């Protein structure tokens, strides 16, 4: 009676037959998948998609690789956080699914429980393989049924048993065209798999499949450019198997962002319940340009703005003004960039130690007005006196929002990250306190002036110190450091090569002027800083305060370039006697005009009025020659005349090179600009033809005067090394900007 019966339950003399329906292999497989990881999953309803007409170039490039490529079988699409990688991958998945060449897709997600590790990756791919190629189903079911421990095995084994072998066994039963077609497995957000080691294991395992599989299987992988992933993709096994696409400016993302924003605003003006209150030209070109600039080509910023301005119960124009900081938030607990802030906080949370990481970020993000001074990792280490490699170590953890490589400067992928870091309410513990950092950076600049060893770092320190001074907290310690600068050590620092000493001293003296402190205290500090400069100049300062050397200098200047006009002013230098400063401008004067305009006695130089034509340009050719006998009429056989015959008397250190040249027979002298390396100029012994116009001469005659000063001082018997700081630190405080077309020189007398 019960010979063939199973599952018989006998209780109290009653016989019961219990049926247990066994779970099929496909159901077992289904229980081990992450259904939300598929491109068409309901869990991912309304996934990120490309706005119509955007990302066309990169999508076409990837599709071309999938359908036409025969050289590589793996493609890495990488870009910073928020660049729109997932939207592109979604678009590719849908297109390939429609063409029946998509085998499977897996979209990792850091915040989704079943999609943030590798445990369900292979089973999810296998489940989709059954749907895409039903011929593989019996072979996959067989493996699942026969190996209860299958899903606990390593990823390499799972790929072999669930993907490679079923594909190979089904190969013979498939039509011939299908066998040669490409078949894509797409993996998005690999960096969101929660274990970097697991990410590397996945890549290594996928790399083995094409060699074992009869099918033409291709892998499209998308991720942020995390350091460990770059190391893996750069390793030898991937060298000939991998193609790469970087989401950078090559694909004009800014134009795509603009198109998306324009479309969003147009739709709001057509459909929003409060559209009647929106101006016809809203939001206007200026605001749109600002949004595009702040997006830095990253769609997450633009998408965040679009979501924030779109709610039907608020006015879009008011919400946009909140985004741009033009209008206060109505709700203090409401943050326009909550999603973006969460992204930044997550990335920054990877920092092991906030300091010096935040100081490194502060240095790169520091507001420098319209100027841009760039930093490499090596330069940052040097400037902040960090152990070599410290900056790279920090930036490697921030690779999804900050970029660099061996030849490029450090740069933020997101301009909005700077706004985030400088807003304490948004960034919290990662807030960059500009006042504190400004003080620290001023001290670092002073150290570079006297003991720096890197020319590039020295150059940045010179150009940035006055900006840092605007934010510095000028306590007594900082003031003492400023006044204690050793100008002699600065002048002798080899790192200064290529940077004019005049510029260094000017920036040094400008820094305390920018300090946020009471004027009497600021003036006192400025006097102390000037005294530091005078310690270096020493007794020769007296030469510049007497009429004789000044007259001598400007006679030489006139002789070399008779088209220069002189204006004099009296400047009070601290508590010392006032001294004369001469503004130098160029006028369209021939030699004859010059002869008739100048009269000289032992102590006086006079220059008559010479009007400026309205269309006059300071680059006017033909007014740079003068006969040497005319020079000798004023100076006699001055030393500089003989020296000029040797061609090169002075080479500017950092700007286009200027040299004094004479003909061999000493009939005329000229100033010639060379747009070449100074080393090449030094090899030139003479120049017979002087008829070409000056090259790259600046319109600012003051700049010209500063260039000539060292040579002129040499000709006057004064140490030329003092010349390149004289105009900035000793006899002048400021110089006005002249209007070339309207200024009319007055008669000037010393």
UniProtKB/TrEMBL annotation:
<protein>
    <recommendedName>
        <fullName>Nephrocystin 3-like N-terminal domain-containing protein</fullName>
    </recommendedName>
</protein>
<dbReference type="InterPro" id="IPR027417">
    <property type="entry name" value="P-loop_NTPase"/>
</dbReference>
<dbReference type="Pfam" id="PF24883">
    <property type="entry name" value="NPHP3_N"/>
</dbReference>
<dbReference type="InterPro" id="IPR056884">
    <property type="entry name" value="NPHP3-like_N"/>
</dbReference>
<keyword id="KW-0677">Repeat</keyword>
<feature type="domain" description="Nephrocystin 3-like N-terminal">
    <location>
        <begin position="63"/>
        <end position="224"/>
    </location>
</feature>
């Amino acid at each position: 009676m019960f010979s063939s019966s199973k599952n018989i339950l006998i209780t109290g003399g009653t016989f019961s037959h219990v049926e247990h329906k066994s779970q099929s292999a496909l159901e077992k497989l289904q229980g081990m998948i992450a259904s939300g990881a598929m491109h068409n999953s309901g869990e991912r309803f309304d996934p990120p998609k490309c706005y119509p007409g955007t990302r066309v170039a990169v999508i076409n490039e990837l599709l071309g690789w999938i359908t036409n490529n025969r050289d590589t079988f793996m493609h890495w699409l990488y870009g910073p956080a928020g660049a729109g990688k997932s939207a592109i991958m979604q678009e590719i998945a849908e297109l390939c699914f429609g063409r029946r060449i998509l085998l499977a897709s897996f979209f990792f997600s850091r915040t989704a429980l079943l999609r943030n590790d590798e445990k369900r990756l292979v089973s999810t791919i296998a489940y989709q393989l059954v749907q895409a190629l039903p011929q593989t189903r019996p072979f996959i079911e067989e493996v699942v049924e026969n190996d209860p421990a299958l899903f606990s095995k390593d990823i390499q084994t799972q790929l072999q048993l669930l993907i490679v072998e079923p594909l190979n066994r089904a190969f013979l039963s498939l039509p011939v065209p299908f066998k040669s077609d490409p078949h894509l497995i797409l993996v998005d957000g690999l960096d969101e798999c929660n274990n970097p080691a697991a990410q590397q294991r996945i890549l290594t395992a996928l790399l083995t499949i094409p060699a074992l599989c009869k099918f033409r299987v291709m892998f499209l992988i998308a991720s942020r450019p995390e350091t460990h992933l770059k190391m893996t993709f750069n390793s030898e096994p991937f060298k000939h198997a991998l193609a790469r696409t970087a989401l950078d400016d090559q694909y004009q993302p800014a134009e795509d962002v603009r198109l998306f924003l324009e479309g969003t605003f147009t739709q709001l003006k057509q459909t929003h319940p409060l559209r009647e209150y929106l101006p016809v030209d809203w939001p206007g070109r200026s605001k749109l340009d600002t949004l595009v600039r702040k997006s830095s080509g990253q769609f997450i910023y633009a998408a965040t703005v679009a979501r924030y301005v779109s709610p039907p119960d608020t006015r879009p124009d008011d919400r946009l003004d909140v985004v741009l900081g033009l209008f206060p938030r109505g709700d203090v607990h409401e943050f326009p960039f909550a999603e973006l802030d969460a992204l930044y906080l997550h990335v920054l949370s990877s920092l092991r130690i906030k300091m010096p990481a935040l100081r490194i970020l502060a240095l790169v993000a520091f507001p420098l007005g319209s100027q841009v001074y760039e930093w490499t990792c090596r330069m940052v280490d040097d400037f902040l006196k960090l152990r070599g490699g410290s900056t790279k170590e920090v930036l490697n953890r921030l690779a999804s929002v900050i970029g660099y490589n061996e030849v490029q400067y450090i740069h933020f992928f997101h301009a909005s990250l700077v706004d985030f870091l400088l807003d304490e309410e948004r960034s919290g513990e990662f807030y960059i306190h500009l006042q504190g950092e400004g003080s620290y950076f001023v001290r670092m600049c002073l150290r570079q002036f006297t003991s720096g060893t890197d020319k590039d770092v020295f150059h940045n320190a010179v150009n940035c110190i006055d900006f840092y001074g605007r934010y510095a907290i000028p306590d007594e310690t900082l003031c003492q450091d400023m006044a204690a600068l050793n100008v002699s050590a600065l002048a002798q620092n080899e790192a200064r090569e290529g940077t004019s000493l005049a510029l260094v001293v000017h920036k040094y003296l400008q820094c305390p002027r920018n300090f946020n402190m009471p004027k009497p205290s600021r003036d006192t500090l400025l006097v102390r800083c000037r005294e530091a400069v005078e310690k270096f100049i020493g007794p020769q300062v007296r030469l510049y305060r007497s009429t004789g050397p000044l007259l001598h200098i400007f006679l030489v200047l006139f002789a070399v370039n008779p088209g220069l006009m002189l204006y004099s002013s009296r400047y009070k230098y601290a508590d010392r006697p006032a001294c004369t400063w001469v503004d130098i401008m160029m006028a369209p004067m021939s030699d004859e005009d010059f002869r008739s305009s100048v009269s000289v006695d032992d102590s006086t130089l006079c220059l008559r009025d010479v009007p400026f034509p309205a269309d006059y340009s300071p680059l006017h050719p033909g007014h740079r020659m003068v006969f040497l006998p005319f020079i000798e009429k004023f100076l006699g056989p001055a030393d500089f005349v003989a020296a000029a015959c040797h061609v090169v008397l002075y080479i500017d250190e950092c700007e286009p090179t200027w040299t004094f040249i004479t003909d061999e027979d000493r009939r005329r002298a000229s100033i010639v600009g060379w747009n070449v390396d100074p080393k090449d100029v030094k090899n030139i012994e003479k120049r017979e033809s002087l008829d070409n116009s000056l090259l790259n001469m600046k319109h600012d005659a003051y700049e010209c005067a500063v260039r000539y000063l060292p040579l002129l001082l040499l000709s006057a018997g004064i140490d030329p090394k003092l010349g390149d700081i004289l105009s900035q630190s000793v006899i002048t405080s400021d110089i006005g900007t002249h209007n070339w077309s309207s200024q009319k020189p007055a008669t000037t007398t010393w």
